[in-house]
Design brief:
Elements (H helix, E strand, L loop, with lengths): L10 H5 L10 E7 L2 E8 L1 E3 L4 E2 L6 E2 L5 H13 L9 H4 L12 H5 L23 H9 L16 H15 L3 H10 L8 E2 L14 E4 L2 E4 L14 E3 L1 H13 L5 H7 L3 E2 L5 E2 L6 E5 L2 E10 L2 E8 L4 E7 L8 H12 L2
Antiparallel strand pairs: 1-2, 1-15, 3-4, 5-9, 6-9, 7-8, 10-11, 12-13, 13-14, 14-15
Helix pairs in contact: 2-6, 2-7, 5-6
């Protein structure tokens, strides 16, 4: 375990004191100039067996997965197999008429206007969990959109489920297989996978917990947890370190393509939005920050990067708190504590 200081004198451990002990925990790392300057684990990956979170614990990434889905799409574009200007009605049979105006790039930057599929799935639908194809089936039955494509920004899990289906259609491979062949295996991310129950298994799995009346209860899956494109990837800190370095060194995509992922998108009227392709964007002390939070049943995560400083913060947790947007503040508290 790489760490900057002992826990007794560790300011980050103080920030994360609520993750310590016999409760759902966290894996935390800070990467600077291609090296870990901090890497520590807290709490439990599985309460029932008292299995501690450790260096190789794999957490469900939730929406941190979207950067991998976006990368898969850009790899297909690099291969000449798709064009980001293709419309939904050209790609999918029986897509509603409004699909002629929705392009792949609208899916990538959350300006498609598509309905949120989660609104159509009851929490009790656990026996046959919804998958990405089911998201498409839901959209085929919707007659309207929130707004015309490109007119507004509205974060869309639906869009990223459709992106996973586009990867499958034009690569000829399953989404998990494509990710493994084109991203995870080339980068040596041997513990990272898009999880499909009954097909593969998550090694060193951290299970998710929700607090109910002051007690932690395992609630690892929901009715929508089987949808892959918007949040179905599991990974750990060592593998995400490899991914972080691949972004710095343009190992999979051209440097200009990566920079495009990190560039604010524009609405039809030219208004900039704080999202690129698979990444949220902000500034801190005048420096560009690219990041993504992840929130799903009993997991809260953030991957926070300042590319110009070659500095990254990873926080993976297996609990249903805090609210997703608060993970940005938590990452910045950790950053401040290390200065």
């Amino acid at each position: 375990m790489l760490t900057a200081c002992t826990k007794s004198t560790d300011p980050i451990a103080t920030i994360l004191q609520h993750y310590q002990g016999e409760k759902p925990g966290a894996a935390v790392a800070i990467i600077k100039d291609g090296k870990f300057v901090y890497h520590e684990s807290f709490g439990l990956a599985e309460l029932e067996t008292k299995t501690a979170v450790h260096e190789h614990s794999n957490f469900r990434l939730a929406s941190v997965s979207k950067q991998f889905t976006a990368t898969a799409i850009l790899l297909l574009e690099k291969d000449g197999l798709i064009d980001l200007d293709w419309s939904m009605d050209d790609i999918f049979e029986d897509f509603p008429a409004y699909g002629q105006d929705i392009r792949i790039h609208h899916l990538l930057n959350h300006t498609s206007g598509l309905w949120d599929y989660e609104d159509f799935v009851p929490d009790t639908a656990m026996v046959n969990q919804l998958m990405d194809e089911g998201v498409l089936d839901i959209i085929r039955q919707t007659e309207t959109v929130y707004f015309p494509a490109g007119e507004e920004y509205r974060y869309s899990n639906t869009a990223y489920a459709l992106l996973a289906l586009i990867v499958e259609k034009y690569s000829g491979k399953s989404f998990p297989a494509f990710l493994n062949e084109r991203i995870f295996t080339p980068l040596g991310m041997s513990n990272t996978l898009a999880y499909v129950k009954g097909v593969n298994t998550v090694p060193n799995r951290a299970f998710g917990y929700s607090k109910e009346e002051k007690l932690w209860v395992q609630q690892d899956q929901s009715s929508t947890s089987a949808v892959l494109g918007d949040g179905g990837i599991y990974s750990n800190v060592p593998d995400l370190f490899k991914w972080d370095q691949a972004l710095h060194h343009a190992s999979l995509l051209l440097a200009e393509t990566i920079e495009l992922m990190f560039t604010k998108s524009n609405l039809n009227d030219g208004t900039e939005i704080d999202y690129g392709m698979g990444w949220h964007l902000k500034t801190l002390d005048g420096k560009k920050v690219v990041y993504h939070t992840g929130s799903t049943t009993s997991f809260r995560n953030i991957f926070y990067r300042i590319p110009s400083e070659k500095l990254s913060i990873i926080i993976l947790t297996n609990r249903n708190e805090p609210e997703e947007e608060e993970m940005v503040g938590l990452a910045e508290k950790v950053l401040t504590a290390m200065k």
